[in-house]
Structures are given as structure tokens and as C-alpha cells.
């Protein structure tokens, strides 16, 4: 089995006064730390937004309560109801904060586990037997990663469990990705659009066309179902004149409105084929997911 890497460069650095060639760890273990860090960063930003939103609701409710109390216009029952509303919002904020902290602590735990795992190898304190066991464990991690990329999810989960490397591989990301892929292949774009919404800012920085491709698939499905009025309304809402949307693709899609799925016109007959477009969109989603989480910088098995 030969392991190759993407964009690899060997790095020299000084550790404990000794110059070590770090190509082995640096090359193969980039995503081992990068992936959980990216997830932690994403969860932190999402938590911050959610808590700020809930906190603003609490602040607004409190100000309304104080305003009514200051004017003396509210009855005892109204004041009690307003106070109960503030309490409920505070409890909701507390519950949300606990969930966010627990999620972030779990991500931080995974980062710590992986850091300790890599440090145990480069520390130079391992015996020959320990180094051999560490390398065997890394082979298991590589195999789990390869199985996940090839779609052998059951085998990957079983191998990860039997070899005890669950905290060192990214099974959850691949399984979540699988669900969205399957939904796209079954003409269900909702999970992918939700993912695009959650990651819109980063996708915009990457100049991604994924959301446009998913919207285009929705439009085609409406035309295929002979819901042309709904398709036109959908296009007006989502296919703006923005330069971010390729005009050529939009024009081709609009041409489908003049034809039926049974048309013999080759140019537009292809546009009604569901399978190629669905699989292409699924592949695009997978590519952006891997890039977003830094999984593309990992090794792969040839």
C-alpha cells in the first residue's frame, strides 16, 4: 500500500535542540488537528451568534417590563405575565449556553486527544515497540479515512471501533456528508440548502456556486413536474441579475420552460435528465465540504 499526499512539503524544525525532518507527521497528520480546530471555530462562531440573539431577546423583554413598571400602567396580572416571559427567556438562554459550552468542550477534548496522540510520537520518549504500535494505529486511521472516502461507511465505523481510534478520525463529518449526498441524489435539496445557509459567509469567500447549482436543480424539478408558474416565481426570487450567477446557465434553464421533459430537442432534452445533474451537485457539495473542513489536505490511499 502506497500513501500519497496533496500539496506536500517536508519541513525542518528544531525540537529539543535536535533538527528533525518532520515530513512524516507534517505530511500525513495535517487534517488530524486542522479538522477539529475548524469545527471548534465554526461552533464558537455559531454559538456566539445564537447567544447574542437570545440575549437581545432577554434585554428587550426586560426593558419592556421596566418601562411598564415605571409608568404604572400595567396591572398585577400583566406584570406577572411579563415577568414570567422574562424568566422563560432567561431559562432558554441558560439552556442554550449550556448546549453551546458542552459542544465546544467536546471539540476541545478532541483537539487535546489528537495533540497528545501526535506529541507521544514526536517526543522521542517512545520505545521501539511503542513506535510500532503507534504506526499500526495510524495505518488503521488511514484505512478508516479511505473507507469513508470510498463510501464504505459500515466498514469504517467497525474498524474505528475495533481499533479504538474513534476520537482520531472524522466519521461524523463523513456521515453527515453522506446524508446530504443521498438527499441530493433523491432530488431533496433541503439539507444541502440548510448547509449552504449555515456556511454562507465562508462559501461566499470561496466564491462557491454550490447554492446556485442546488437552486438550479430545484428549478428544473419544478419544470419537470409541469409547475411552470411556480418555477418562474422561484427563478425570480433566487436567480437575480447578480454577476455571481452565470447568465449562460440561467438562460439555458429558462429555455426549459418552452419544452416538455419528452422533447426531442437534444439541447434541452439533456437538461431534463435528473441523474447527471443530481450526481454533479452531490459531488460539488462533497468537494466544498472537504475543503471547508480541511479534509482535502489529508492523505489518501492509492
Number of helices: 13
Task: Give the rounded overall mean pLDDT.
Answer: 78
Strand order of the largest sheet: 1-4
Q: Report the sheet-strand fraction.
A: under 5%
- State the share of residues found in helices, binned by percent: over 70%
Q: What does this molecule look like?
A:
This protein is mainly α and 302 residues long. Helix content is 72%, strand content 4%. The chain has helices at 23-28, 30-71, 76-122, 128-150, 153-163, 171-185, 190-198, 200-205, 210-224, 228-238, 247-255, 266-269, 274-292; strands at 3-4, 12-15, 18-21, 300-301. A hairpin with a 2-residue loop joins strand 2 and strand 3. Helix 4 packs antiparallel against helix 5 (153-163), helix 6 (171-185) packs antiparallel against helix 13 and helix 9 (210-224) runs antiparallel to helix 13 (274-292). The relative contact order is 0.11. Residues 1-21 and 297-302 have low confidence and may be disordered.
Keywords:
302 residues, mainly alpha, two-stranded antiparallel ribbon, two-stranded antiparallel sheet, 13 helices, 4 strands, 72% helix, flat, disordered N terminus
Q: Could you outline the blueprint of secondary structure elements for this entry?
A:
Blueprint: E1 3-4, E2 12-15, E3 18-21, H1 23-28, H2 30-71, H3 76-122, H4 128-150, H5 153-163, H6 171-185, H7 190-198, H8 200-205, H9 210-224, H10 228-238, H11 247-255, H12 266-269, H13 274-292, E4 300-301
Helix pairs in contact: 2-3, 4-5, 6-13, 9-10, 9-13
Short description:
The chain has 302 residues and is mainly α. The chain is 72% helix and 4% strand.
Amino acid at each position: 500500500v502506497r500513501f500519497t499526499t496533496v500539496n506536500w512539503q517536508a519541513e525542518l524544525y528544531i525540537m529539543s535542540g535536535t533538527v528533525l525532518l518532520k515530513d512524516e507527521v507534517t505530511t500525513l497528520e495535517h487534517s488530524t488537528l486542522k479538522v477539529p480546530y475548524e469545527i471548534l471555530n465554526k461552533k464558537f462562531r455559531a454559538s456566539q451568534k445564537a447567544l447574542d440573539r437570545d440575549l437581545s431577546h432577554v434585554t428587550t423583554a426586560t426593558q419592556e417590563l421596566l418601562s411598564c413598571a415605571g409608568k404604572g400602567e400595567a396591572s398585577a396580572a400583566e406584570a406577572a405575565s411579563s415577568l414570567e416571559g422574562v424568566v422563560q427567556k432567561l431559562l432558554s438562554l441558560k439552556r442554550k449556553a449550556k448546549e453551546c459550552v458542552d459542544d465546544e468542550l467536546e471539540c476541545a477534548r478532541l483537539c487535546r486527544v489528537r495533540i497528545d496522540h501526535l506529541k507521544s510520537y514526536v517526543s522521542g520518549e517512545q520505545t521501539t515497540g511503542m513506535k510500532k504500535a503507534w504506526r499500526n494505529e495510524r495505518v488503521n486511521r488511514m484505512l478508516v479515512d479511505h473507507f469513508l472516502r470510498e463510501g464504505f461507511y459500515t466498514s469504517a465505523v467497525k474498524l474505528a471501533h475495533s481499533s479504538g481510534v474513534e476520537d482520531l478520525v472524522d466519521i461524523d463529518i463523513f456521515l453527515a456528508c453522506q446524508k446530504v449526498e443521498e438527499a441530493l441524489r433523491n432530488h431533496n435539496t433541503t439539507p444541502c440548502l440548510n448547509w449552504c445557509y449555515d456556511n454562507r459567509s465562508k462559501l461566499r469567500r470561496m466564491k462557491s456556486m454550490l447554492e446556485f447549482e442546488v437552486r438550479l436543480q430545484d428549478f428544473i424539478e419544478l419544470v419537470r413536474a409541469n409547475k411552470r408558474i411556480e418555477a418562474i416565481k422561484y427563478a425570480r426570487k433566487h436567480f437575480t441579475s447578480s454577476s455571481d450567477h452565470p447568465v449562460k446557465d440561467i438562460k439555458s434553464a429558462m429555455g426549459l420552460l418552452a419544452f416538455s421533459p419528452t422533447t426531442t430537442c437534444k439541447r434541452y432534452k439533456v437538461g431534463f435528465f435528473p441523474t447527471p445533474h443530481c450526481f454533479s451537485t452531490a459531488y460539488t457539495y462533497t468537494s466544498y465540504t472537504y475543503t471547508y473542513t480541511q479534509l482535502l489536505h489529508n492523505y489518501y490511499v492509492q
